[in-house]
Amino acid sequence: MSIEVKDLSFIRNTVNSITEEIDKRIIGSQNTVKFMFIAITSGNHILLEGVPGLAKTMIANEFASHLKMPFKRVQFTPDMLPSDITGNMVFNLETRKLEFREGPIFTNVLLADEINRTPSKVQSALLESMEERHVSVSGVTYDLPKPFFVVATQNPIEQEGTFPLAEALLDRFIFRVILKYPKRDEEIRILKRNLGKEKNQTFIDPEYMLKMKEMVDLVFVSDEMKEYMVDLMRKSRDNSKVYVGASPRTTAKLLTAARACALIHGRDFIVPEDIYYICNALLNHRIILKPEALIDSVEGGTEAAFKVIDEIMGEVPVPK
Fold it and tell me: What distances in angstroms separate CA 97 from CA 84, 89, 91, 100, 128, one per listed residue?
């Protein structure tokens, strides 16, 4: 079974159109939107990290508006409980029975805003639902809608009143995308944009998004490309600057993400450029650097990780 040419063309053109439409409202968002498409198409989730004012919430809103899917936002706070996310049992006075009231997690696209501002129990409840695609309340399991996609955000500079995500929990996000300040010309474009005139024209419905997820498994991957991905992940474990390298689960996620990357670019086969495109966002929160690697770096830990990842990719021969 193979992917039809008309589907490849439709996906490429639709993704490009949506990316361009969002970029008119949120200048400089094209790469972030493409990572979001790769994440949702591969059945995964994404973490957006950046200082306040970089339009993390707005990107999630705009992305959901092009998908014709229910969208909900949860603003995380230190006093939240897991039931505030998953839902709980309430007593119905008319029927005199306990009934399950769904929480905000029962949606297609969920914005988990400032996920690091809530305790570990709430983080775990959300991340378990992300992995299992269901919630359990009072011994009963409730399936989440399909597709189910979480866009989480966090502020890296605010430490007071925060609960940093553990490495194991970070691993549930296929990408951690670091949002940076816009370039000078982009910031000028921000001041010149006219938000009132730009309207959404391109959409993807939930049914076709589920079809795209099925197509991901049909994207061809040669044995040479599979060996290349394995060698990259193994090299991350052997690097002298890395304390903990990428796990075998990361290798599997790299394969799925590379397939989704090829699909949104209108191809039914993987090329090395797909790996280059996603590797930094996929690995920067999955490798732990040794202290000396951080000490030697004048930039922050994330920039140091990017340099190590680039170094790793430069050491592994590219298949021809």
Answer: 21, 10, 6, 10, 28
Q: What is the DSSP string of 131-151?
A: HHSEEEETTEEEEPPSS-EEE
Residue ranges of alpha helices (H) inside the chain are 5-25, 30-41, 56-65, 83-86, 120-132, 167-170, 184-192, 206-216, 223-238, 248-264, 272-283, 291-295, 301-315
Is residue 36 within 8 A of residue 46, CB to CB? The reply is yes
**DSSP conformation class of 116:** G
Separation CA 209–CA 7 (nearest Å): 12
Per CATH, 5-192 and 219-315 having the same topology is answered: no
Per-residue pLDDT at 298: 57
- The structure tokens listed for 118 are 């809530």
In eight-state DSSP terms, residue 115 is G
Q: Cβ-count burial of 199 within 10 angstroms (0-12 exposed, 13-18 middle, 19+ buried)?
A: exposed
Whole-number Å distance between alpha carbons of 222 and 310? 23
Positive or negative: CA dihedral 3, 216, 133, 31: negative
- 181-197 pLDDT per residue, tens: 999 999 998 888 876 66
Check if CATH label 3.30.70.1170 holds for domain 219-315. no
Domains of the chain, by residue range, sit at: 5-192, 219-315
Beta-carbon contacts of 291 under 8 Å, excluding residues fewer than 6 positions away, are none
Token digits of residue 37: 């498409």
User: Looking at the whole model, is its pTM more than 0.90?
Assistant: yes
CATH superfamily, domain at 5-192: P-loop containing nucleotide triphosphate hydrolases (3.40.50.300)
Condensed to tens digits (0 to 9), the pLDDT of residues 264-293 reads 999 999 999 999 999 999 999 999 888 887
CA 223 to chain CA mean position, Å: 27
Average pLDDT, integer, range 163-190: 89
Residue 140: CB atoms within 10 Å: 9
